[in-house]
């Protein structure tokens, strides 16, 4: 049996790949002194859609929800609360990067420093966040569930994935309709 955390850990590997690309782009920005708004759009879209809505959505709407029904050990509760706050931080940083990119595109030269700062924070943040989930929290979290509960969570994750792809592409079509009236 695959534990419900299996898909979450697989998703972590893809997030790590994007964060690695962001790290290389950050080095290029520092070297060249220019930002690539299209790359920032790609990276922030990935973080917002895949890392946050899909991946963090599963953690918050399934795993954390079900854990909140359990009597957690104080350390497990503390770590879960930290992870939730880290998700909020990730959203805040991503929104700040989008805003800085928009200022940069509008000609605000100081926005480049903000882009560098926020990208560095994201590149530093995600590996630590993922390591905390993979190596500390997930294994402990699974001890609170029996096989039937784990199977139910896994099925719910698969259902969320199936629905999620439709939501993503509905949004893409809606955005295209708005852009090309």
Explain what this protein looks like in three dimensions.
The chain is an all-alpha fold and 181 residues long. The chain has one domain: nmb1532 protein domain like (Four Helix Bundle (Hemerythrin (Met), subunit A), Up-down Bundle). 86% of the residues lie in helices and 0% in strands. The protein is built from five helices and no strands. The protein has helices spanning 5-32, 37-67, 74-105, 111-142, 147-179. Helix 3 (74-105) packs antiparallel against helix 4 (111-142). It is globular. It starts with a helix and ends with a helix.
Q: Key terms for this structure?
A:
181 residues; Four Helix Bundle (Hemerythrin (Met), subunit A); 5 helices
**How many separate structural domains?**
1
Estimated helix fraction: over 70%
> What would you say the CATH architecture is?
Up-down Bundle
Shape: globular
* CATH level-four homologous superfamily name: nmb1532 protein domain like
Order of helices and strands: HHHHH
How many β-strands, per DSSP? 0
Question: Largest beta sheet, briefly?
Answer: none
The CATH C-level class name:
Mainly Alpha
Low-confidence stretches: none
Strand content: under 5%
**For the CA atoms, what is the radius of gyration?**
18 Å
Structural class: mainly alpha
Oligomer: single chain
Tally of separate helices:
5
Cα distance spanning the termini: 49 Å
Walk me through the topology:
Layout: H1 5-32, H2 37-67, H3 74-105, H4 111-142, H5 147-179
